[in-house]
Amino acid sequence: MNTASAITADFWSALGGEADVPNALRFTGDGGLPSTFAVTDLASAAIGGAALSIAELVRQRSGVMPGVHVDRRLASFWFRTSIRPIDWRLPAAWNSIAGDYRTNDGWIRLHTNAPHHRAAAERVLGQHADKGAVAAAVARWAKGDLEYAIVDASGCAAEMRSLGEWRVHPQGRAVAAEPLIHIRATERGPPPAWPVVDTRPLAGVRVLDLTRVLAGPVASRFLAGYGAEVLRIDPSEWNEPAVVPEVTLGKRCARLNLKAVDDRSTFEALLAEADVLLHGYRPGALASLGWEAAARRATKPGLVDVCLDAYGWTGPWRERRGFDSLVQMSAGIADAGMRWKNADSPTPLPAQALDHATGYLLAAAVVRGVFRRLATGEGTEARASLARTAKLLVDRGEGHDMPPLAPERPADLMDAIESTSWGDAHRLLPPVSVDGAPMRWTLPATDLGTAEPRWSHARWRHE
Predict the structure, then answer these.
(1) Strand 106-110 vs strand 157-159: parallel, antiparallel, or unpaired?
(2) Topology of domain 3-90+176-312+350-434, per CATH?
(3) Sheet arrangement for strand 68-71
(4) Beta-bridge partner residues of 233
(5) 387-416 pLDDT per residue, tens
(6) Residue 311 falls in which region: left (phi positive, over 0), alpha (psi -120 to 50) or beta
(7) Of 81, 134, 212, 343, which one is least surrounded by beta carbons within 10 A?
(8) CA-to-CA distance for 50 and 223, rounded, in angstroms?
(9) Cis peptide before 214 (omega within 30 of 0)
(10) To the nearest 10°, the Cα dihedral for 137, 141, 144, 150?
(11) In terms of Cα–Cα distance, which of 297, 291, 251 is closest to 274?
(12) Can you state the angle between helices 3-15 and 353-376, rounded to 10 degrees?
């Protein structure tokens, strides 16, 4: 069994899918992204696992198992970015002070893209105009002390640990004891009206998306590609300009303030008519707003409720803020990359692979929830974490003996031009195909807050 097939087996076993389904999956293409870890295999397996859930759903309705084909090269590209702007540019991915810094005893990463996270770092380090000044301030700290101080100030930072240090860390041990994805059945709801058209398997499924950078939006983009109606909800002040054009493909995007009375009523009505709730709030955050898990299920019996966090659902860091780049530092990945490359600074993965892989795992959990709802009427509760996905990647070993991928070529792009909120763009061809059910999107990428917070009038349409 090759590494991609082995990771697919890990994914599918964790999801509880029917044992013979992975037999339908085929990988094509050679080479891999440059890394000490098998990132291309992870990309191929994660995308393939999500597509297998679609194929299983089709078989549930039609009795025929379609084949699933993953292009390893395109899967690798999609784990980086799929959009190619025409005569415009994506904003910079990081703000002026985000990045890796040397402390007096090692390295630390500051994640300061969100204004409130930058403000937290500045409360600890002081306000500085450029990275040089920040570096001078950071150099006076021990990495563990600075990590604690910034996190305690409600910011985001991670010291660089080795793989061995993470294995014995209390949070590393807690994550290692967790399943790749926790998934269970919940109370039954009324019979759903989803048609499960073979060519658009998720037509009629309504997904209420409360996720932001990056795993959750990847999940809902995949679901939209197979016909789900995705309505993304953001607070009024939130923006993530560097990634919104990448991840809002196929979605409508609205804004609500979940602390305001009128907007809370709107959200409650949306949830009552949703089939899927996808959220990336830290544990307990939705409950603090009055929507604990039991209340969500009471609002929508049979709900497919899928969520994620950064550092896992148990252990001392279960409520810690985090992002892919921080988890890579904490979990030993950036240190292992540095040693593999003989570099003198942290070396992350060649893509935000933890985010993307977890996103496709979440998407598969949603589709398995749809499968369960159709089969038994039961709802589903599922949760995953970036840190647990990191453990899967590390456990599956090295991947640096692969030849490089062939460079991108014009034939890798879709024929149609995508008219986004920022201008025209090309989009890479989908990295996976399910026989008879092509992945396609009927809405272009759009900016946040461009739609009204309501479902479409039609419950579904055969596109």
Answers:
(1) antiparallel
(2) Rossmann fold (3.40.50)
(3) 25-28, 68-71, 432-434
(4) 254
(5) 999 999 999 987 777 899 999 999 999 999
(6) alpha
(7) 343
(8) 9
(9) yes
(10) -40
(11) 297
(12) 40
Give me 98's structure tokens.
């985000």
**What is the Cα–Cα distance from 18 to 10, expressed in whole angstroms?**
13
- How do the domains of the chain map onto residue ranges? 3-90+176-312+350-434
Beta carbons within 8 Å of 379's beta carbon, 6+ residues apart: 185, 186, 187, 188, 189, 297, 301, 302, 303, 304, 305, 369, 372, 373
The DSSP bridge pattern shows strands 182-188 and 99-103 to be unpaired
Task: Report pLDDT for 463.
Answer: 43
Alpha helices in 226-352 (DSSP H): 244-247, 261-273, 285-288, 293-299, 324-330, 333-341
Strands 251-255, 229-234: pairing kind: parallel
Phi first, then psi: what are they for 382, rounded to 5°? -140, 150
307 three-state secondary structure: strand
- The span from the CA of 354 to the CA of 389, in Å, is 6
- Per-residue confidence band for 284, with pLDDT thresholds at 50, 70 and 90: confident
Residue for token pair 């932001």: 212
| Structure tokens belonging to residue 407 | 């460079």
The whole-angstrom separation of Cα 76 and Cα 245 is: 19
**Which residues in 192-220 are b (16+ Cβ under 10 Å) and which e?**
eebbbbbebbbbbbbbbbbbbbbbbbbbb
Report how far residue 286's alpha carbon sits from residue 242's, in angstroms, rounded to the nearest whole number.
26
